[in-house]
Every structure is written in C-alpha cells, then in structure tokens.
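Researcher: We're teaching a course module on how sequence relates to structure. For the next exercise, students receive a sequence and then see the predicted structure as tokens, so they can try to spot secondary structure elements on their own. Here is the exercise chain.
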Amino acid sequence: MLLRVLFDGEQKYVRLSDLTFNAFMKEVCLKFNIPEGRQPDLKVFDQSDTEVDGEVFEEIVKESPGTFKVMLSKEELDASLSSSSSCSAASDDTIILNFTMCDPPEEAAAVEGSRPKKPCHINFEAKALIEKILTTKPGGEKIMQEYAKTKSLKDATRRQMINILTAEMTQTHGTSPPKSVRVLYAQGIVALFPYLEDPYSQHGYEHYYDPESGSGYLAWRLKTIQRKSAEERGVSVSKSPKIGGPSRVQPRPFTADKVLSDEDVEAAIAVLKHSADEDTIREKMKATFIYRQSMVNNEKRAGDVFSVFPRLLDTPGLIEQDFRLLFGEATANKFLEKWPTNLKRKVITESHGLVPTTELLDLMRNAESTAEIENGWDSDMSAILLLLHLLPPSAQGRKRPGKVSACQAVEHLIRFIKAGTSVQQHLDNISQSSQPYLLAQGPARSSIHTFFIVIDKYALPCKATCSVGALDELFKAHYVFGTSYSSSLANVFTFLQTTIYNIDVGETKETPRVAELRARMVR
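Model: And here is the predicted structure for the students to work with:
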C-alpha cells in the first residue's frame, strides 16, 4: 500500500508492505530521516483529533483513514488543530506529519536530574544550509555518516565540521561575519544533528555560538582565523583570561532556623575551641553557620576561618554539613547517587572516543577492572581521572603558563603519599594555594585509607574513605569556603556543578567542551 506523507512542507510516498503501526512509523522515520529514537515520542491522531495507536491503526487505514496528524506535544497539537481546516483538501490516503525535532530522547534522566524543558523551534533554513554545505564539501558526507551511525561526533570529527563550516562562512561573509550569520550556523548544526543539542542552555546551540558572550566552537575558530589574518597584516591580538567557579563576592542564599546574637556566636565559638564531643561540635557548627559564611565571603576575613573554627581541621563531616545547609539534602546527594548508577559507565564509554595514550589506556583498564588493581588508582578514581581527560584544561593564553595537559592537571586534583608519611611534612613542602585538592594516603594508590582536603596549607580530614565520596567532599569544599576552581580543573568542576549537582544552571559560564559533553551524556 502507498500512503502519501507530508513532513515539513515536503510530501513523499511511503510504501507499506506490513500494515502495522510500528511498520508505518519506522517507514516514516526512515523516509524523512527522523532518528529512530524519536519514534516513541510521536503521537498519531485521526481527522476527529482522536489518538490512534497500534491496536486500531490497521482498521482505520482500511476503513476510513481520513487525515492523520503526528504530534510531539500537546502544545503543538493545539496549534495544529486550529489550522485543521486547511488539511481538508487532502485525500483519504494522505498522512500529514507536523514534527519538530528538539530535545533528544530522555534516556538518561538519572544523569541530568530535573532537566529543563525548552520550546521546540527548529530553523529549517539553517538546517538546510548546514546540510547543503556538508553534502557538497569534501569530508562532509563522512561527518553525516558518523552521526547517523552513532548519534554523536568524535572530537576530531567535530573539529573537522567546524573547520568546514567556518571556511564556508568566511568565504561568503568575510573573516568577521555578522552575529546573525554565526547564530544561523549554530542553529543549523543542532537542527541537523539534534543529539548534539545541549538541553541545559537556553537555546541548545550556545556551545557552538553564544551571541551573548561571543564564545563557542564557531567563535573560537573564527578568532583563530582572524588572529592569523591579523598576524599576516602585522597586527597584534591580545586575549584576556577567563575565571569561573564559586565566588566570595556573591554569597549563597540560605535559611537559618535561628539567627544568633553576637554574644551567642562568641559563646558558641568558645565552646567549639575546647569541646571534644562530636555531637556538641556539630550542633555549635550549625549554630554558627551564618557567621562562618559571612567570614568566607569576606576576602579580608576568609583566611581566619580555620583559626576561628579549628574543629574543621580535626572533625570529619563538617564540610558536608555546611554544604547541606547551603543547598539542601537533594542537591547534596546527587553525585553519590548518580555516579554508581550510570555516570561512571558513561564516562568510561565516552573515553573510548579519545585519542589513546599510554596514560589513558592505563586509566581505562583500571576503571573497567572489577578485580583489585596492582598499579595505578582504584576503579572509581581512574574513572574520575578519565573525566579529566574528557574535560581537559582550557588554554590560558600565550602570556600565561600555556595549555596544561590532563596528565599535568591530575596534580591539581589529587596527590598521593605513602602510609606513615607525615602529612605536616607534605604541607610544609607545598606553596601557598587557596584552591583545594585531595591528599590520598595509603600503602598504594589503589588502596587509600585516608583522604584529606588540602587548602591554605591546612589538611582537613574527609569523612569519606572512598574515591567517589572524597571527590564529592572536594567539590563541596569550594562552596563551603568560597574559593574559585583551579584553572586546570575548571571544566571538570563546572560540569559537575551544572550537569550533576544542577547548581546555577543557565547562570554559570561554561566552555563549549562542557556543554558538548553534557549533550553527549544526557541523550
């Protein structure tokens, strides 16, 4: 049977040898290049606006199919019903699809948490533009084939796509194309490749070009082209570094059960300095939380927090308590809940697409191991370090230290000392640094007994004795003590902040690399 199908203004015949609902939907998806993963999202309605499912589809087609409509959401259905009279001229074997591809299937809700919803708007002009460029330029077909097969693009493939598109853009519009052109290209990329869309950004394409900040993969490539062009003309180009992470100048909002007077705060601090009872310590630390937050958010007083509250140096779990007071139970639990369920697995899977090096292969082998590891870090820490390879440090500019490799950045995340080695000796040998890192102590990297968070040449004991819990505490320490992320770890911590803990989503400046990895992992 031949059924006439209209999709996005284009009408085609669909041949149906098997008169079943599933066969029909598969043929429609195949005919119009709709990702198979979107098939469960489609709903079919007959001419009376009654939903048609697999049980009645065959009977309706045989008896009186009328005009079929396929919708994604109630909002789209309501919009199309108002124009249903315009479809009355269609013949009985015509099926009209009103389909807009926006968000990829929500297969990974456990990773993304409460994922924000965006209205489904596709710029079909932009989509056609990108498709035309890729189908006519050398290398473009391979890019489209890789996406069709994997619903993703490897880093090298993405770079090739950006090079092809910016070359076409500059050839047509010059080395400084208008903002509208850059937005058009970014819209076209996620329209043609919907699984590359970032579900946490306002429009989904900002990691390719963000008109507000002027950043994104397209913008970066254009800046490279502009710099080379300027250098050829003998013009110097300067850059300014970017800083991200928690800030002391913007304290977090929180609600306290009771606000203590200055006298009560002084009394509680006096008790804390001399008490050894853990329950009393936790109670007084909670009571002085507001005062302590005012300290860490005051640049002049932040350095005194450990002398005023020395129990931070010998009582595990106080960082966790303060973080929960800042953000609540649900946010505090997110990383520990998501890591073992599917986050670790997705990190390992994504790492297979990286360029293999000796260090990377060792980490992948250890991360995937279920047995005790003789050399290197344990399975969880190895997977965490794979995340660092997936989100390596961004270049700091030619006048700064330059690009730090993922292997070099490990030292900014975790360091190891043998069991029996003096922790104080380690502290004495490091330079002053306000950005915290983990200090792991044990007989071997694969067998850690104790973790510390080192900050301002102090070693704070972690409550956690496992790698995942220690990283969770390290992340939280940034907010508890109001310190920014290390530039070498900014991409990793920003990814955890927005994608896993869902803190300041849409308000935090992210690199395109962070948004791209999120788009891959939440599809």
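Model: If you want an answer key for the exercise: Residues 327-507 form one domain. The longest strand covers residues 2-7.
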